[in-house]
From TrEMBL:
The lineage of its organism: Eukaryota, Fungi, Dikarya, Ascomycota, Pezizomycotina. This is PIPK domain-containing protein. Gene3D superfamilies: 2-Layer Sandwich, Phosphatidylinositol Phosphate Kinase II Beta. Keywords: ATP-binding, Kinase, Membrane, Nucleotide-binding, Transferase, Transmembrane, Transmembrane helix. It comes from Thermothielavioides terrestris (strain ATCC 38088 / NRRL 8126) (Thielavia terrestris). Residues 1-358 form the PIPK domain.
C-alpha cells in the first residue's frame, strides 16, 4: 500500500470508524504491540476528531446533513478497501500536503500541515466559526464538516512523513464530473485574491527567478464580470461583509474567493445536480454554494471563501512580517505581501476586489 493510500485509510478510519481508534486491546502484550505499531507508523497515523459534537450539531441542525449521510461519503463501495473511499486529487509535495475527494464527490479532505495554521483554527477560530455558521445560513465561508488531528506520538508525525491535521470541507465543484460525462456543461473556476500585493515570485526580477510552475500557484485573475440583479448583488456583498468581519476580528489574512462559473442553457439541471442529496438548508432559494443564476441567464455561479487559517499573531506569520519589513528597508521597497499586511487592510482590498468583478443589472 502506497503513501497516499495509507494516509487515506487513516482519514477514513477516523471518520467512519471512530470507535476503532479508541478501542484498547484486551491484554498487556496486545496493548504494547498496538502502541509500538502506532509509534513506528510513518504514514498511517492514528487520527481523532476535534470537537466532534460541535461539528455534528452544525451539520445536523443548520446544514441538514445527517450523520448517516455524512459518514456514507467515507464508506467504500462493497468489496473495496477502506482507503478507496478517498481519491487523491492534489499535490503530494515535500511539505506533506494532501488533498482528497470522497468517492461521491460531495466533500474534500485537505491537510493543514503548518503548526501556525492548525493551532490557530483549533485555539482561536473553531468556536467563533461554528457559531458564525450557525447564525449565518448563507455564509460564503467554506463549510467545514470535521477537523482531524493526530493522536499520540509517532515517527511519521515527528519526521512529518504524513500530515498531522486535516479538515473535511464542502466541495462546491460537486457535479462537475457527472456533467463532463454527460457533455452538458462547461465549468471554469478561479482562486481569487487581491493581486496588488507584493508577490516575490512575480515581482522580483520580473519573475525571471521563479519557475512557471511556481508562478502558476499564485492567485488567479478573473477578467470578466458576474452579472447580477441588485437583490443578488446585495445578498452577495452582505455575506462577504459579515464573513470577512469575522475573519478580521480574529486576525486572519490571505484568504481567497473560490469562484466557479458554469455555462449552461439548462439551469434547472445545475441546481438539481448540485443540491440534490447534499441537503441544502434553504433549497427553495439557491445559494452561492449550490448555484446562483446570473442576471443575463448565461451562467450559474458558485462561490466560497477558502484558506482562512493564516493569522497575523502566530509565530510563523510574525516572522514573515519581520522579514518583509527588513526587505523593504534594506533591499527594495515593495510594500506588504498578502500574508504580512494587517487584517483590516487585507479585508478592505479583498472586498474591493469582490465588488470589482460584479456588474449589477437593474430589472
Amino acid at each position: 500500500m502506497g503513501r497516499q493510500q495509507k494516509i487515506a485509510r487513516s482519514i477514513v478510519r477516523a471518520i467512519a470508524e471512530p470507535s476503532a481508534n479508541q478501542k484498547r486491546p484486551g491484554n498487556a502484550l496486545a496493548v504494547i504491540l498496538a502502541l509500538l505499531s502506532a509509534f513506528f507508523s510513518l504514514y498511517q497515523l492514528v487520527l481523532r476528531r476535534i470537537s466532534p459534537e460541535d461539528f455534528s450539531n452544525v451539520r445536523r441542525r443548520h446544514w441538514n446533513v445527517s450523520d448517516d449521510d455524512y459518514i456514507k461519503s467515507f464508506q467504500p463501495r462493497e468489496g473495496r478497501q477502506r482507503e478507496e473511499a478517498l481519491k487523491a486529487v492534489g499535490d503530494m509535495g515535500f511539505s506533506g500536503s494532501t488533498f482528497y475527494s470522497t468517492a461521491d464527490q460531495k466533500r474534500l479532505v485537505k491537510s493543514v500541515p503548518r503548526h501556525s495554521e492548525h493551532s490557530y483554527f483549533r485555539e482561536d477560530l473553531l468556536d467563533p466559526y461554528v457559531q458564525h455558521m450557525a447564525t449565518h445560513p448563507r455564509s460564503l465561508l467554506v463549510r467545514i464538516y470535521d477537523f482531524l488531528a493526530v493522536s499520540g506520538p509517532s515517527l511519521g508525525r515527528l519526521f512529518r512523513c504524513a500530515p498531522s491535521h486535516h479538515i473535511v470541507m464542502d466541495n462546491i465543484l460537486y457535479g462537475q464530473e457527472e456533467a463532463k460525462k454527460r457533455g452538458e456543461l462547461e465549468w471554469e473556476h478561479w482562486d481569487l485574491k487581491p493581486t496588488s500585493y507584493f508577490y516575490p515570485e512575480r515581482d522580483i526580477a520580473g519573475g525571471a527567478l521563479a519557475s512557471e510552475a511556481t508562478k502558476s500557484r499564485l492567485a488567479d485573475e478573473f477578467h470578466d464580470k458576474i452579472v447580477l440583479r441588485r437583490e443578488q448583488a446585495e445578498d452577495f456583498f452582505a455575506s462577504l461583509d459579515a464573513d470577512t468581519q469575522l475573519l478580521a476580528e480574529h486576525n486572519a489574512v490571505d484568504y481567497s474567493l473560490f469562484l466557479v462559473r458554469i455555462r449552461t442553457a439548462q439551469p434547472a439541471a445545475v441546481f438539481s445536480g448540485s443540491s440534490g442529496s447534499q441537503s441544502v438548508s434553504d433549497s427553495s432559494s439557491p445559494t452561492w454554494r449550490t448555484g446562483v443564476m446570473s442576471a443575463d441567464g448565461k451562467h450559474v455561479f458558485r462561490a466560497s471563501i477558502l484558506d482562512f487559517f493564516w493569522a497575523k499573531h502566530k509565530i510563523q506569520p510574525r516572522l514573515m512580517t519581520l522579514l518583509i519589513r527588513l526587505w523593504n528597508v534594506l533591499v527594495s521597497k515593495h510594500g506588504h505581501m498578502s500574508i504580512t499586511t494587517t487584517p483590516d487592510e487585507y479585508r478592505g482590498r479583498f472586498l474591493k476586489m469582490c465588488r470589482s468583478i460584479v456588474e449589477i443589472r437593474e430589472d
